[in-house]
Amino acid sequence: MKLGVVFPQIEIGADPGAVRAYGQAVEQIGYHHILAYEHVVGANTASRPAWRGPYDIDSVFHEPFVLFGFLAGLTERIEFATGIVILPQRQTVLVAKQAAALDVLCGGRLRLGIGIGWNAVEYEALGTDFHNRGRRCEEQVALLRALWTERAVTFDGTWHRITDAGIEPLPVQRPIPLWFGGGEERVLRRIARLADGWMPQFQPDAEGRALLARMQGYAREYGRDPAAIGLNGRMPADPGAGEQDWIDRVRAWREIGGTHLSIDTMRLGLPDVESHIKLLERFHAAAAAQ
After folding, report:
1. pLDDT one-digit tens code per residue, 172-211
2. What does each C-alpha distance from 268 to 7, 11, 264, 276 come to in angstroms?
3. Alpha carbon of 68 to those of 33, 72, 112, 279, 286: distances in Å?
4. How many CB atoms lie under 10 A from the CB of residue 223?
5. Cα–Cα distance for residue pair 76/147, rounded to 1 Å
6. Which residue of 18, 38, 158, 207 sits 20 to 30 Å from the alpha carbon of 28, by its own alpha carbon?
7. CA nearest 267: which of 40, 59, 15?
8. pTM of the prediction?
9. From the CB of residue 194, how many other CB atoms can be counted at a distance below 10 Å?
10. Contact predicate 66/85, CB 8 Å
């Protein structure tokens, strides 16, 4: 199982020096990947008193393609994973182009996590339909893979039409791996049928194991080997929990078949980027000793 980190989007701030220091430090420590969330715009809660979303207008989010393009030139080995790009609120061909360009510039180190999102405010701001996002996402996946593997594409779908055109340069990975987020029933079937991997929000407890078993059952129905679908878990590096708790939770993810695990240091009260790095050093040392 490969250990990575969750980029501390809402806490790292806008200083490019802090972003550089974080990216280079986690690669030097020995982590396998950096996983970054995305939100394009945030809702102003002053005009939405009933808002219940986890992020709002004051939450700092670096755009993941730009962020990873910046870090690609400052690192050599670490993988970049979006966790997730909200695909249906973006133009599919432009995503294909951006991802291919990033994959070329980082030497094939991109893993593209995608999902359909929950925030209707963003869909409105980006001029896209919130209500058919799941069905559009499936068509987008087919088009992305065609654009990443074929010199010229002709595609006539419900929402997309291309007549004998393509992107250049093509990515190093053909196609770029597509990992899906989410966990609702329709999403489980979509993951089982289409995904290279899954980035779930569950923990490796009884409920999480049941969800995983259900997705794997659907994969078998579609004639796929469930073991071919990667599993990227997430866990907090709570400094108050103790190193043995960290080790036990890493083992739990490994036992249920986790292929990747992203360590999250956000919302732990860490005051600066150096504190995030020091905690990740401790975590990696504890995990590596097992």
Report:
1. 999 999 999 999 999 999 999 999 999 999 999 999 999 9
2. 14, 10, 9, 9
3. 11, 6, 11, 22, 28
4. 7
5. 26
6. 38
7. 59
8. 0.96
9. 18
10. no
Cα angle vertex 223, ends 218, 156, to 5°?
90
Per DSSP, helices labelled H in 127-242 are 133-149, 185-194, 206-221
**Contact yes or no for 160/92 (Cβ under 8 A):** yes
Write down the pLDDT at residue 260: 98
- Give the residue among 146, 188, 191, 198 at the shortest CA–CA distance from 167: 146
**Identity (one letter) of the amino acid at 167?**
I
Band of pLDDT at residue 10, cut at 50, 70 and 90: very high
**Confidence bin at 289 (pLDDT 50/70/90):** confident
Measure the CA–CA gap between 248 and 268, rounded to whole angstroms: 20
| Six-digit token string for 184 | 């609702």
pLDDT value, residue 174: 98
106 φ/ψ sector (left φ>0, alpha ψ -120 to 50, else beta): alpha
Identify the H or E element spanning 263: strand 260-264
Angle at 184 between CA 180 and CA 190, to 5 degrees: 45
How high does pLDDT run on average in the chain? Answer: 97
